[in-house]
Amino acid sequence: MHDMAAAKIKNILADIPAQLPKELFTCLLKNEQVEIERIVSRGQSSAKGEWYDQIHDEWVVLLQGEAILEFFEPQEFKKLQAGDYLLIPAHCKHRVDWTDPDRDSIWLAVHLLAL
Length: 115
What we know:
Number of domains: 1
Order of helices and strands: EEEEEEEE
Low-confidence stretches: none
Strand order of the largest sheet: 1-2-8-3-6
CATH superfamily: Jelly Rolls
Largest sheet: 5 strands, antiparallel
Number of strands: 8
Structural class: mainly beta
CATH topology: Jelly Rolls
Strand content: over 45%
CATH class: Mainly Beta
CATH architecture: Sandwich
Radius of gyration: 15 Å
Shape: globular
Helix content: under 10%
């Protein structure tokens, strides 16, 4: 039996600081199989030549804002708008090339740690 009284409602769009000098990463849920995080970007991007090369698949959806992801091989740029999502396979090198500097880009990232 589950105790739903212990379940707390939270809002993914809440608790975003007015000043955001760097991307904000917030872990929402983590267990052995999955890690779900909120990422907030406000004009931040990855440093040129700096690539994410993750050992697990990552499914990401852009809930708000706009962004451009760059993929290493083959080199490709993908522009994302609110509602767009994609699966980034393990070891697919990628980086954030651009995010909208005038509004928050809010990402929901699901890292598939074990299948």
